[in-house]
Automatic annotation (TrEMBL):
Residues in the signal sequence: none
Keywords assigned: FAD, Flavoprotein, NADP, Oxidoreductase
Recorded superkingdom: Bacteria
SUPFAM superfamilies for this protein: Nucleotide-binding domain
Protein name: FAD-dependent oxidoreductase
Family indicated by similarity: Belongs to the ferredoxin--NADP reductase type 1 family.
Segments forming domain FAD/NAD(P)-binding: 9-165
Cofactor: FAD
One Pfam family cited in the UniProt record for this chain: Pyr_redox_2
Length: 454
């Protein structure tokens, strides 16, 4: 008689939106499957915790909902403070699990490659975002807001987040779960004007209409548009693009009431260099023309008009980038693990038992919900392969990998530990009239997680 096959045992690496969606999808699709979810940070959530801006906290709820669904299955375990490439190797995973899904996101910043980029006062938006959200790796950074004007280079939603965080009245920020160190630093900020620089035109901007609209309601902030917006928005454009242009058009011609702070959206401008001796004092801008890129799109080409804009602070917000993971294929030009609908693609074909989802699979684009569809596609592939995966059970299927990591002295945060952190952050928040006071120090996070049941 044939021995019954062991239920599918899957490791997921990365507890951001993509990893969490893949977890719940897998548990839903296979009523016997077991999932161990690992993250290099003590806390789950990925960018939902450390990217989504503090004034948009309601959007973070999705992470808690997905966790609750996973825990309710009784077939899920979370292990924080365990990094693939540090504590976990590919051999470990292959020996203990039928399959592994990599959902490690894209955490690096992209560089402009212009002179002056490394001057003090010039920062990556990725660092600023992590800093104001108490990401343990960014908490020690310093940002100097002792200047009147800041520039943000890039025209995506992250650029709008960065600008908003510098312009929101401090009393509003105080009602959020922004990191304590960021609240302190921003409370003495002298920044009164933020200029967002888009290299292409209003029609090509990446930010979305709801996020743009939100800028028009910031208390004490006048919004100005510097760019050519057509009077008649072509009906042939996609609805989202039309709406964005309509809002920009209205803002362009609206007479703003005087306000203590200004936000200026300037289009068709590229930074050629950041200027200054000891720190950034200005950015040299070139005005771009928009030309056909020969592939059905529009590209920016530098013209001859150059100007200097005095600024004391510059953020480059030109997208995120994933980095290669040990022993996994990586497409450096696209910044993704090559894959076919979620199955990892090696040089010699598909790699048995390895899958990807989220930003490391498709690149750094899309909102939280986009990862649901992305995870579903990956889980579809894994479920289609389930028969062949179970037919070749891993060598150490019946040994517990997290248990052996713990025996090696690795301070793992399990789901109870994370709940303990969550509870303490909320309690500290309640005591000071805030929704949560985030803990940024990894050591403190680990100590709290280890301190007893929630
Ligand atoms: C600043 C910012 C703000 C955003 N705001 C919004 C918003 O308001 N609304 C919205 O819908 N979308 C928003 N998004 C988009 C959304 O956050 C992403 O679509 C989503 O987080 C991508 O999910 P992911 O799981 O692929 O990556 P991530 O969320 O980055 O998760 C990856 C996880 O993998 C872990 N990890 C990385 N390397 C390893 C390793 N070697 N070993 C173990 N674990 C590892 C990381 O710690 C992280 O937890 C925002 C994005 C950014 C950058
Ligand atoms: N509230 C929200 O829902 C929210 C908040 C934050 C992020 N997100 C999502 O997260 C994803 C990532 O956002 P993102 O803003 O980092 O990326 P993004 O949407 O890809 O925007 C990147 C921007 O950088 C510009 N850029 C790239 N290279 C440049 C260069 N060398 N010089 C000047 N500009 C350059 C791009 O311009 P070109 O188009 O000309 O290349 C684009 O405007 C997006 O899908 C976004 O919607 C959502």
């Amino acid at each position: 008689m044939k021995a019954p096959s062991h239920p599918l045992k899957v490791a997921i690496i990365g507890a951001g939106a993509a990893g969490l969606y893949a977890t719940t999808e897998l548990l839903r699709r296979d009523a016997c499957a077991r999932v161990d979810l690992f993250d290099r940070l003590p806390t789950p959530g990925g960018l939902v915790r450390s990217g989504v801006s503090p004034d948009h906290a309601a959007r973070r709820e999705v992470s808690a909902v997905l966790e609750r669904m996973a825990v309710a299955s009784g077939r899920f375990r979370y292990f924080g403070n365990v990094a693939y490439g540090r504590e976990l190797t590919l051999d470990d995973l292959r020996r203990h699990y039928h399959a592994t899904i990599f959902a490690c996101g894209a955490v690096e910043d992209r560089r402009l490659g212009i002179p002056g980029e490394d001057l003090p006062g010039s920062h990556a938006a990725t660092h600023f975002v992590g800093w104001y959200n108490a990401h343990p790796d960014q908490a020690e950074r310093r940002f100097d807001f002792d200047c009147e004007r800041a520039a943000v280079i890039g025209n995506g939603n992250v650029a709008l987040d960065v600008a908003r965080m510098m312009l929101l009245p401090i009393d509003l920020l105080r009602q959020t779960d922004i990191a304590d160190h960021a609240l302190d630093a921003l409370s003495t900020s002298r920044v009164r004007e933020v200029v967002i620089l888009g290299r292409r035109g209003p029609a090509q901007a990446s930010f979305t209409a709801p996020e743009l609209l939100e800028l028009t309601h910031l208390p004490g902030v006048a919004v100005e548009i510097d760019g050519v917006i057509p009077d008649d928005v072509p009906a042939s454009l996609p609805a989202s693009q039309r709406l964005r242009l309509q809002i920009l058009h209205e803002l362009r011609w609206r007479r703003s009431a005087p306000a203590p702070r200004r936000l200026i959206l300037r289009f068709q401008r590229s930074a050629e260099a950041l200027l200054g001796e000891d720190r950034v004092v200005a950015v040299r801008l070139v005005e771009n023309r928009l030309v056909d890129d020969g592939r059905g799109g529009i590209k920016a080409e530098p013209g001859s008009t150059v100007e200097t804009l005095e600024v004391g602070l510059v953020f480059r917000s030109i997208g995120y980038r994933a980095s290669a993971l040990p022993r996994l294929p990586f497409d450096d030009s696209r910044g993704v693990i090559p894959n076919q609908a979620g199955r990892v693609q090696g040089e010699d074909g598909l790699v048995q038992g390895l899958y990807v989802t989220g930003w490391i699979k498709r690149g750094p684009n899309g909102v939280i919900g986009s990862n649901r569809f992305c995870a579903r596609e990956t889980v579809d592939a894994l479920m289609a392969d389930a028969g062949s995966l179970k037919a070749r059970p891993p060598m150490d299927l019946h040994n517990d990998l997290p248990g052996s990591l713990q025996r090696r002295g690795i301070g793992i945060t399990d789901h109870r530990g994370w709940q303990q952190i969550d509870r303490i952050e909320r309690e500290r928040g309640l005591a000071s009239g805030r929704p949560r006071r985030r803990i940024a120090a990894r050591r403190e996070l680990l100590a709290i997680a280890a301190s007893g049941p929630a």
